[in-house]
Amino acid sequence: MRRRLTLVFAGGAMLLLTGARDPILVPEVSQHEVALQQGFTGTELLLFGAILNPEGTRAAKDYDIVVVLKGPTQSIVLREKQKVAGMWINADSAEFRSAPSYYAIASTRPISEIVDDKTAAIYELGLKWLQLSPIGAIDPEQQARFAGGLVNLNRRYGLYREEDRGVTVSEQVLYQARIGLPSRVPIGTYTAETYAISKGRVVASATSEVQVRKIGFERAVAGFAENYGFAYGLLAVVISVAMGWVAGRLSALV
Length: 254
Prior knowledge:
It contains six helices and twelve strands. By secondary structure, it is of the alpha+beta class.
């Protein structure tokens, strides 16, 4: 009995010591606020930080680092077009409840070399593991087709991106990753999630935020459109008609 208690105590002590060895992450972002204004052509964020032992000293071993930058989620409807009698018409459609408006992931190595599929799915590490949450009943093959179409579309726009070796780690302490934001980046609160991974297990994580907002004239227009939708639509129609009339008069004079 005494020997069994000794073994249990020793095992518990080892678990405590193992847990104490798990590192902590100290993340930082080069810009906590991105201002969108006229002429904005995109920018680049530097996500960096340190990997430390709980005592504040340098980590004793190498860890894989994965950084994920996500924009605000949104509900989106995708429609598939088909050509019928020489005309393109809407055919099948699918609605997703929680599609991120922006998603970028950078890692020290390809994700498939760092974690297994189950862990990648739990933490949404990679575009193929995004949890888009379809609304209503949908055939799995159809869901995969629409999800793939959404990912490919946003990749072309620069809103979804993956960098398999986009994170560098120096002296087992400092890590950094550069992630670009395109000119059409959506506004809202972005979360930068950093994971330290060892032997396929997430041993530490940390989160920081980035605000993307419009300023100046663009902000005024966006606010007017959001708060006075009907008036904004009516004004847009009036301006379009007026510009068309002016263009017609000018062409008549020429």
